[in-house]
Design goal:
Elements: H1 5-34, H2 39-52, E1 60-64, E2 69-70, E3 76-77, H3 80-91, E4 94-99, H4 105-116, H5 122-135, E5 140-144, H6 160-165, H7 167-176, H8 183-193, H9 199-217, H10 226-234, H11 237-249, H12 253-260, H13 266-276, H14 284-296, H15 301-317, H16 322-336, H17 342-353, H18 365-386, H19 395-410
Antiparallel strand pairs: 1-2, 1-4, 2-3, 4-5
Helix pairs in contact: 1-2, 1-3, 1-4, 4-5, 7-8, 7-9, 7-10, 8-10, 9-11, 11-12, 11-13, 12-13, 12-14, 13-15, 14-17, 15-16, 16-17, 18-19
């Protein structure tokens, strides 16, 4: 068999990585027996670091099972020392370990200490993984087992129950990008496991995407929505349609579309907006959503025209915000015609944003009513249990409930 230069280099890198992992396993064992400052521990860490840096400046990603370490292209490392390192990582709920090309010897020492002192509680182990990433400034990332199927060289694909129980973390991890989860892989797992006929899961996905969009908005930089946009685009069209259909009929449809406008493909949001434009009174939330969507569609003339038409329809039937809507419609038409450069367009949008009135804080009386009624029913049941054997109703509680409802109606 003739080895090409490329395959020879690849084999040498795998050999260096295997040796580095063997030395890291020795460091963990030595640290557990003798402590972090013992010469045996220090020598093993130094050797591991040296071997890692023969990887020609590339980041290293290693999969973890309970009995072996998974190298590039699925090759398993299952020597005695590799198995001991795999068990230590597995005890910390690690499914994949990411080692940056600039990882330092001190970073490996931080990882070693965490592996030696793995906590018994899952929440504490999660904190330990985050501590390693923080202390090493992201040069070492420990990806949890439940997300390992979303990264290269990870564990087996996630099952339906796994996706159901970890949906929020999957979506947030796809948005954050700090644990090595690829947004495309996360969306593909959801495509495979979430059925459009399951309204409960669609509702959960909608909630988690709104939460992720709100989190992304707290970040800085123009790229803050990029990963979440990639995630949303990779969701199947049927799944996106089901998600937006549920948004359209929800009581918070305008607010939700305002949040999703930054991440869901613009054509999907425009279609959903067209379905609700004549249904609800135009509010401050509506204006905020239109402003955000105007930013998203800025580079697509057809989308600008569509949104301008929707804005014009709203302006015709809305007196309170008619002037604001008219200005936005003209701005969108001008942008579609190429009259404004992107910088000028953005500045004018920012000026419009400053003229959006603050949304009033409203109490959801129905939610309050339901909560109070549920609490009253709970007390009634308790009294019935105490008074078991009597036919006397819990009249004081009934009077309290009536009084509370009277006050709420009056208010």
């Amino acid at each position: 068999m003739i080895m090409t230069t490329e395959s020879t280099a690849h084999s040498e890198q795998d050999a260096a990585l295997s040796q580095a992992l063997e030395e890291l396993a020795r460091a963990v064992q030595a640290c557990a027996l003798y402590g972090p400052d013992h010469p045996t521990t220090r020598d093993a860490l130094h050797n591991a670091h040296t071997r890692l840096h023969t990887e020609q400046g590339e980041n290293v990603r290693v999969g973890v099972t309970s009995r072996s370490l998974i190298l590039d292209e699925g090759a398993a490392l299952d020597s005695d020392s590799a198995r001991s390192l795999a068990r230590a990582l597995h005890d910390l709920d690690v499914g994949v370990i990411d080692l940056a090309s600039d990882a330092r010897e001190a970073d490996l020492a931080t990882l070693t200490a965490a592996l030696v002192h793995a906590e018994s509680e899952a929440a504490e182990r999660a904190q330990q993984r985050e501590n390693v990433a923080g202390a090493t400034k992201g040069r070492i990332k420990l990806i949890p087992i439940r997300l390992a199927g979303l990264v290269e060289h990870g564990d087996l694909p996630l099952g339906e129950s796994h996706v159901r129980s970890n949906l929020g973390e999957i979506v947030l991890s796809a948005m954050r990008g700090d644990v090595g989860v690829a947004p495309e892989a996360a969306a593909q797992q959801i495509n495979e496991q979430v059925r459009t006929q399951d309204p409960g899961m669609i509702s959960s996905l909608r909630t988690e995407m709104l939460h992720a969009a709100q989190n992304a908005r707290q970040l800085e930089g123009d790229e803050r929505f990029d990963r979440l946009r990639t995630f949303a685009r990779t969701l199947s069209p049927d799944l996106r349609q089901a998600l937006l259909q549920q948004t359209v009929v929800a009581s918070d449809s305008i607010e939700a579309l305002a949040e999703l406008a930054d991440v869901v493909p613009a054509e999907d949001v425009l279609q959903s907006l067209g379905a609700i434009e004549g249904r609800d009174r135009v509010s401050a939330s509506t204006l905020l959503m239109l402003e955000r969507l105007s930013t998203v569609v800025a580079d697509d003339a057809d989308h600008c025209k569509t949104l301008a038409n929707i804005t014009g329809n709203l302006a015709q039937r809305e007196s309170e915000h008619q002037e604001w809507l008219g200005v936005l419609g003209e701005l969108l038409h001008s942008r579609a015609s190429g009259d404004f450069a992107p910088e000028d367009y953005r500045k004018r949008l920012e000026d419009l944003r400053t003229h959006i009135p603050a949304a009033p804080v409203a109490f959801n009386l129905q939610e309050i009513d339901d909560t109070v009624a549920q609490a009253v029913r709970t007390v009634e049941i308790s009294i019935d249990l105490i008074e078991a054997g009597t036919d006397e109703p819990a009249t004081p509680i009934k009077r309290i409930e009536d009084r509370i409802q009277d006050v709420m109606i009056a208010g």
